[in-house]
Structure formats: C-alpha cells, structure tokens
Amino acid sequence: MAGRDRKGAERQYADLDDSSFDRPRRRTRPRTKDRPTYDDATDAVVMTVDRGRFTCGLVGEQHRLVTAMKSRPLGRKGVVVGDRVRLVGDLAGGDTLARIVEVSPRATVLRRTADDDDPVERVVVANADQLVIVVALADPEPRTGLVDRALAAAYDAGIDPLLCLTKADLADPGPFLEIYRPLDVPFVVTQRGADVSDVRDRLADRTSVLLGHSGVGKSTLVNALVPGADRAVGVVNDHTGRGRHTSTSAIMLALPGGSGGGWIVDTPGIRSFGLAHVDAADLIRAFSDLEDAALDCPRGCSHQPTEPECGLDLAVTDRRIDAARVESYRRLLGSRDIR
Fold first, then answer.
1. CATH number at residue 251
2. What is the pTM of this model?
3. Judgement on whether residues 247 and 125 belong to the same structural domain of the protein
4. For residue 52, what are the CA distances in angstroms to 99, 147, 240, 300, 323?
5. Does 242 share its domain with 200?
6. Domain shared by 92 and 113, yes or no
7. Nearest CA to 143 among 57, 212, 67?
8. Cβ(76)–Cβ(114) under 8 Å?
9. Total number of domains in the chain
10. What would the pLDDT profile of 173-197 be if each residue is shown by its tens digit?
C-alpha cells in the first residue's frame, strides 16, 4: 500500500517545473542612476583638515566657519587645504556637521614626496598661486637645499615663487640673495619687530603658501600679518641649530581686508622635501631662455655638465645665455633625483 502511494506521488510531481522551487526573489526597487544636482549647495574653501574633519570658510563669509565631512559618493577622493568645495546640510557651525558633496577642479597643486625615491605624492595645498619660501638669515643658518627644492616644486606646479628672508637684524641678506640673482626670483626682507608692510604688499590679492624649516620665523610672520592668529612660536635648539615643530597642520587664514585682501596658508616646518614627481623636462619650461637653447641638445640630454653636446654649454660659449643661469638651473636639477 505504501509503495503504491510513493509511486503515485512521484507521478504527481514529475510534471512540475523545477524552477518553481527556486527561492522567491526580493521585491525591491531597482537602484536609480540619477544623482542629485546639489543646485542649492553652498560654495566654501577648506581652511584646515583634522582627522577626517574639514573646517571650511563660506565664500564671501570667510569668518563664518563650518565643520564638514566628505559625503560617501566622493569615495577616496582627497580633500586638502585650499580646495574649493560645495556644502550641503547644516551650515550653522558649532557642533553640527555639514557634508562636502563636490570638489571643484584645482587650478594648481603643490606636491612633495617624503623622499626622492618615494613614489607616493603628498599634496601640500591646492589652488595657491604663490609659494613664499621663508628663510632665516641666521639662527638657524640658511640652507640652499630646501630653497632649491621648493623652487623646483613651484616651477613644476606653475606657482610663482617668492623668497622671504627673515631675521635680517642678525645677518646681511646680500650674500644669500646673490646665489639666486641669476634666477630672477623676487624677494622681500624682514626682521624681528619690524613693520611687515612690504610682505603684506607681496601677498595682497593672492593665495600664498608659506614654506620653510622649523624655527625660521613663519609663525611669527603669520602672527604679524594676521592679528589674532595666535600661531605658536618656537625656538631654535642651541646644539643642533634646528627649530622645533610648533605648527602641526596646515591652516588657511584670510589677510585683513576681507576675502579680497588675500589668503595665506601656514604649513608645519619641514625637514625634507622630496621631488620624485618632478621631471627634468618639465622643470626647464620655467626658464624660457634655457628652453630655447636646449633645442640644440641631442635626444635624451639630461642637461648635466657631464653631457658632451649639451646645447646649454654651446649657448654659453656663444654668449647667448648667462653662464650663471645655467649653473643655477643645474643646481635645481641636482636637487632632485634624475632617473
């Protein structure tokens, strides 16, 4: 009897479609490909970055600061000081968080690497149009290494360089300026307690990033330019001749006179400035007279003194260019690893 019942059941289910036993699918709406336009987003500038939180100044209201975080659609896209962004959400400030939903294309990007053989680029600041290389004439003693590297990075990024020599009350700026005379780098000289009007004039209506070793007087200069900035001021170690780090992160500040008065970005003092990202072919484009002479170089010429047929040497012999210009350019080349 049981055998007949089993055979009957087999005949009953033999005609059924196997697909009818599949697990039923979830009834959810398909994900839309439409993205919000954020037409009502507010324009802002990133002033500081701290552990995934971005302090932003609203355009036209630079004294009104809003803390924000990146929205998820931005993914791993980096946001740095100087970036022009668009915000949505609570813009009241205080303990509330807005969201960064868009990052505008950058006009310029100042980069560096930790070392010359480090392939990882680090963005120092975005959208700056002037690099102020701050050098102390004494205490600590000036070093050309960082200046050369900073100049190479500025030329590569398309940013105008400016030498700012501090502590002129301790040493004569003439000998140091003579080193960079062939490059026609503009400069300004200041000293402790002196009026900083000349520096302010150079920074007016521009976005300038201050770069230099620890202890050269960047924070002192910022405090003089922006009353109330309260940047910590350090001292130079008597034994090592090096300054102690007082700034731990970059910060963007508005110069007095409103948003049209210009911006400065104070950066932490640095010990190394790698140039793994700078190519020799890009660097020479900053020297139009040398670039014309380099057209006579053989293919693959590195423009170093060891090159037997470098067009730069031929131009010096023919007195078409100044030998000091070539020497200065080659020193910039030597400041990075030529590969």
1. 3.40.50.300
2. 0.78
3. yes
4. 12, 31, 35, 44, 49
5. yes
6. no
7. 212
8. no
9. 3
10. 999 999 888 888 999 999 988 899 9
As beta bridge partners, residue 133 has 163, 211
Report which of 132, 142, 119, 166 is spatially closest to residue 255, judged by C-alpha positions.
132
- Whether 104 and 82 have beta carbons less than 8 Å apart is answered as no
Q: How many C-alpha atoms does 32 have within 13 Å on its Cβ side?
A: 3
Residue 161 lies in a domain: yes
Which is it for the CA torsion 123, 125, 130, 131, positive or negative? negative
Please give the single-letter amino acid code of residue 76: R
How far apart are alpha carbons 57 and 125 in whole angstroms? 16
- pLDDT value, residue 222: 92
> Which residue intervals of 15-85 are DSSP H helices?
none
d(Cα 300, Cα 196) in Å, to the nearest integer?
46
Q: Are residues 304 and 167 in the same domain?
A: no
Which range marks the domain in which residue 202 is found? 109-266
Decide if 208 is inside a domain: yes
Kindly give, in sequence order, each residue whose CB lies less than 8 Å from that of residue 169, ignoring residues fewer than 6 positions away. Answer: 191, 192, 194
Is residue 120 domain-shared with residue 253, that is, in the same domain? yes
Taking 50 as the pLDDT cut, the residues of the chain under it are 234-246, 259, 338-339
The answer on 114 and 99 residing in a single domain is no
Q: How far is CA 141 from CA 18, 166, 240, in A?
A: 85, 11, 11
pLDDT in tens, 252-310: 999 987 545 799 999 987 777 778 778 777 788 778 788 889 999 998 888 988 898 99
Please report the sign of the dihedral spanned by the C-alpha atoms of residue 49, residue 55, residue 233, residue 178: positive
Tell me the pairing of strands 160-166 and 130-136: parallel
- In a domain, residue 253? The reply is yes
